[in-house]
C-alpha cells in the first residue's frame, strides 16, 4: 500500500488513500458467504492469524496499475465445507461492484489467497 487512487473532476483532483480502499473492501469481503475473515500471515513463522474487525485492511494489499485501476490482493480464511471456487467468484463480483461504486474507479484485478479453513460454530 502507499499510493493514492486518483480521480479527475472539472474542479480538480480527488485522491483516495489505499488504506481507505482496503478498509472498505475488507468490510465488504467479510459479509460475503463463506468468508470467515481476513488473514494476516507471518511469513517468518508461517502462522496464519484471523484478523479482528478493526484490522481487516491488514489482510488486503491495494495497488494501482499504470492506467489508475485498482488491484486488490485478499488474504482470506474460508468456512469449512464450502466450495472455494463459488466463494471466490462471489467475493470477486461483490467486491468489484461495491468498490467501483464506492470509489468511482475501475477494478483491474482481484487476487484471492486462501490462507486457511475454519469450522464456523
In brief:
The chain is an alpha+beta fold and 121 residues long. Helix content is 26%, strand content 42%.
Structure write-up:
By secondary structure, the protein is an alpha+beta fold. Helix content is 26%, strand content 42%. It is built from two helices and seven strands. It has helices at residues 18-29, 84-103, and strands spanning 4-9, 12-17, 35-42, 47-50, 60-64, 70-79, 107-118. The strands form two sheets. Strands 3, 4, 5, 6 and 7 form a five-stranded mixed β-sheet that branches. A two-stranded antiparallel ribbon has the order 1-2. α2 links the parallel β6 and β7. α1 (18-29) packs across α2. The relative contact order is 0.22. The mean pLDDT is 90.
* N to C succession of SSEs: EEHEEEEHE
Structural Rg: 15 Å
The share of residues in extended strands comes to 35-45%
**Average of per-residue pLDDT values:** 90
Summarize the biggest pleated sheet. 5 strands, mixed
The proportion of residues forming helix, as a percent range, comes to 25-40%
Which residues form runs of ≥5 with pLDDT under 50?
A: none
Number of helices: 2
Q: Give me the count of strands.
A: 7
Shape: elongated
Alpha-carbon distance between the two ends = 34 Å
Classify the secondary structure makeup into a structural class. alpha+beta
Structure characteristics:
alpha+beta; 7 strands; two-stranded antiparallel sheet; about 25% helix; about 120 residues; 5-stranded mixed beta sheet
Topology:
Layout: E1 4-9, E2 12-17, H1 18-29, E3 35-42, E4 47-50, E5 60-64, E6 70-79, H2 84-103, E7 107-118
Parallel strand pairs: 6-7
Antiparallel strand pairs: 1-2, 3-4, 3-6, 5-6
Helix pairs in contact: 1-2
